[in-house]
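Pasting as-is:
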Amino acid sequence: MNTNVLDVWNGEAYKEIRRRIASFQILPQCRGCGLAGGIKPEYRSNLTDHIDPEQEKRYINVTTSQLQTEEMFTISITTYENPDWLKTLFSSLARTLSNRDIPIVITDSSSTIVHKQIKKIANFSGLNVELTQFAGSMIEAVLDAAKRVRSKYMCLCDADLCFLKPGWDELLLNYLQSGYDLVGSSIRYKTIAEPNFMLCPTNVIIESRLATSESGEHGRITDLIRDQKKKAVLFQKRVDFSGSRWGSIILDNTGHELVYHNYYSARVKKPNDIPEIEFRLHKKHIKSIDQNAHDIQYYMDNHWPDNLESYLRSTLD
């Protein structure tokens, strides 16, 4: 059978390759032959498309221009002097996102030296990242990002998260398509969404100014959603680890592990810097922020997608 080479060149497969090149996105690569562009989507799997867990050899252009996107939501991450956790977060995003083209905007208030480290991590993440250096408070950083993105919804994420559930972005989209306007963690207050992991309309974030209300810290977002008679789904179940592992595993509403969140009490450079008095008695067990990040990264590299709770319990003294 004769095949016109122009028909092939102008076909959908090559159009997709050209689109990715033009937008500085990563080309999938066939594990068998190394063909740039990979194989047809209907035949793809983890065995047929090259996926590098460390993402060390992948490059994505990082800019500070306004995000131009029609995606349903943008992931917003604010950072301050915590490159170790950001590396772990990005590693988990690369493994768990179904749509790796989802825009991720990082607003960084770190020192110039640390900002360079964060830029390097973003450059080699293999994700669709915009990085901005910002001088201001963390709340101001979130609001700045919200004013720059064009997606209808924003997913607020603390930098010290590690996503565990494959396809969690599809889970959030399913909630949106089912008529929910607010999806988020609610492991502390139980009645309001917490911005360590929260998806809600971008305009609500801006209107709320992340203010605290009688409902709780940053409760104004949930109050606005309820005032507008919109629906919310809150993840209230968690598994806690004190002792030598300080953090919470947030479960989805079916009881499956969704995301790991580093405790506030563990966000210290040294155990002697523990900010909460009630935790200081346990300082010999509290890890520094970078050690905790490295330990969770080890789990992601060597044990994920096995159950994190089981793994952590097996390592407890």
